[in-house]
Structure formats: structure tokens, C-alpha cells
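User: quick one, fold this
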Amino acid sequence: MFQIMESFMKRVGLSVEELDRLNVIHVTGTKGKGSTCAYTEQILRNYGFRTGFYSSPHLVDIRERIRINGQLIDKDVFDKNFRLVYRRLHETKEAHDGAMPTYFVFFTLVVFRVFLEEKVDVAVVEVGIGGQYDCTNIIRRPWVCGITSLGIDHIKILGDTIEKIAWHKGGIFKMGVPAFTVKQPDTALAVLKERAEEINCPLWVCPDLEDYQTDCGPLRLSLAGEHQCSNASLALQLSHAWLQRRSLAGQNVPNTPLKNTGTPQANPFRPSPSMVKGLEETVWPGRTQVLKHGDITYFLDGAHTVRSIQACVRWFTESSAQHEENTSGPVTRVLLFNLSGGRDSAAMLKLLVPCRFNLAVFCPNIPDASTFCQADLWNVNNTVEDMMAFCLEHEKNWRLFNNLQDINGTHQHTLVFPCIRSALWWITQGRDSALTDSADTVLVTPSTEAKAAPLCDAAQIHILVTGSLFLVGGTLKNLHSESYK
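Assistant:
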């Protein structure tokens, strides 16, 4: 993999040695990679450093994947580098047996060029999938590495056990480079420890967030959900270790060698004001995000694994209850759900049942059917027909878990729509001004009209959008389409 990646880099005028200048913070894991990177980037930006941040996937605009100082990359800069990388690859493909990179590899090449061109002080790089064979692992000398919470995901690529997945994630460890991880299942931590010892990489487990001492009471996080506590602790350790190398922080990061008797716990140092402020100000759209549009409240969380759905349920239950406190009149709860990537929708949906939704709506990850064409599919292996079939399967599983019975041949309390825009318009019943121009895109039938009664009678509508970051992204595109132009 690395020989192939290095070959692509040479074809676009990049070298592995140049990447050493990026002062990389390299982060992998199953859950919380993006949130951890976002916290870390915000903290270091607060210190005045020029930051580069590479994440995936994007929600609305592809430029979200490349951020300079927290902002989407300038359109002209993106266009110039995108075209340059493609042109050089295309011009040299005949000399390389027609070889062209995959989408993610291509984009990573663009990112490296941009970060070097923009002369960032630090590059926070999120691994795509896994770690050992991920193309971002071409980075040979990161300044510090991090591993977030591990779980079962991408089993066709990484394996079907937590131990196999941990082996892949530990592949980003580098000799002598400090690495930090959050608390993991014992078997997963054992694999990480073994990999770290093989590579001679010092590894520490992050302390609980409440162990950090401040002058202003408990640390406050801008991102909701108790699972964010471990992400924030990891971000503190990553940023502190990076700052220590820049000689701007105290000597609180452990520097003792890794012992065979166990993995040491990192010290819960006293966070600086810039760190405290960074944790309070971090913005990471689509993850435990709440948007209130008048009587409509959107709860957005791109959870797509069993553990992340469990965390989503806890967050939504608490957050929705808080928003209901000052409501006079009935509140209708609606689930808007889709799941992609061959994951087990039955397992996910079963976990959502305790939220006691009044209605469940399913649709493909297509933002707007009226402007959609087959070429827009992010996953070319699935046709529109496939995607609709998946949605019908989701609906079937939901009805099974909720013991919903057919009445006169119709499905009660559930609906399937062809796109996100039509689903949102029906759920909001035209009450959200951001969607009022969609009325003619929804076919009103006796069935849909009858099922809309709880929505029409509600004082407020709470919509949980989850199961897929692409579904969340499509929702944001419909609600905030102007903000990405």
C-alpha cells in the first residue's frame, strides 16, 4: 500500500520527506475521531497556530474535509490543487500501466498539497478506515498519535472482532512517537499495548475528564453527550503532547518508558485557559447537534454503529426532555432514519425503540429527488432501487420491534419517502420556512394525510435524524443550503 501511495505522491510532486514538515497529529479509532480532532484543532488554534484539519466524510460540501484555521478551504485554492493533482496523475498514468488512485487516496494527495502550500504549523489528520493500511499512514513521523474508542465497524475490511480491529488501528504507532488512547475493552487494549511494544512506541491511557483540575470548576464541553468526555480527554493529551514538543507547555506529559506490566495512565494536568476555551468553543456539525426552527427542533447525530446509537439514544432522550420542559401542548417525536454500508439495521433500530417515537420515517441518502441523478450516488454499488429496498427493510424491522399492525392494508406510524427533502417537508407539514418551497414535491395521499394528524396537532415537533452521516448531511443541505455556496 505504502509503495503505491508513495508512487502516487511522486507523480503529483510530493515526497514523504516533505510530509515531515507538517507536524502531524494522527488520529484513528471507531467512534469519536472527528470530534477528538475538532477539539484538538480548536485548542491549538487558540494558541495562535495556523492549523490544517483533514476529516471525512463531509456532510454538505466536499471542502469541509480540508479546513485551514477552522474554515473550509477557499474555493479557488481547492479548485487549483484539485485540478493540478488530477492533471499530473492523468498525464503520467500511461507510464504507470494506467494506474489511478481511489477517491480517498486522490483526496488525500490534494490535502497534503494544500497543507504544504498553506504552510500550516500543525496538521490534524483523521484516518479514513483502520490505520495500518490507510493511505494517511504514509505519514512516517507524526508528532503524536491518538486512538479513540474502538468498536465493531467496517468488518469486511478490518475484521469481525475487536482484537482484529485494534490491530489495524494500532498500525499508526511509530517508533518513539508518543501515543494516547482512551479506555478500551481489555482485549482491545491488550492488542494496542502489544503493537506499541513491537514498534517501541510509548503508549498511555487518558484519564477521566473529571480528573483534570481547573480554576473554574468542571470542564465544559460544547459537544453534547457523555461519550464526548473521553474524546475531550484525548484531545487534551494530544494537544499537550504537541505543545510540549514546541516547548510551549509544562512538563506534565509522561515520558517514562512503556512497561510490560501494564499501560501507564497519562497525567491529568491542569488545562491552560486556551485548552479550557477550546473545549467550550469547538463546533462539529452533525454530531449531537440541535437546530431549532420555530416549532420544529432537529436533533442531528450521524451515529451508525451499535455503540454510537446507544450514546445517541442517551443524548436524545435527555436533550429532547429539556426542550419539552417549557412547551405548552403536545410534542410529537419523529425518527428520520437510514443506514448504509451493509450494517445491521435491526440491531440499530431495536436500540431506538425506548425513545418512544410517534412516527418513524425512512428515506435514502438522496438530498432532493427533483435534482438527483444516478451519478450523484456516493456508493456506486447501490442503485436507487437498492436504496429504496433498504428503506423498506428498515421500515419492516421498525414495525416488528414496535409491534405495529397493518390496518386495512396500510402501514401505521411509518412512512418511506424517495428523498430527504420530501421526508422533511412531510414531517414538518410546511411549518419550517426553509422547506416551504418543497410542497409540490410530496405526493399527498389519503394514507400520508391520515398519518399527519399527530404532526398537525403538535405544539412542537422533535425530529431525530440518525443512522448515517450522509443522511445528516443531506438534512443540513436542505436546511442550510445557502451557507455552503
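User: anything notable?
Assistant: The chain is about 40% helix and 15% strand.
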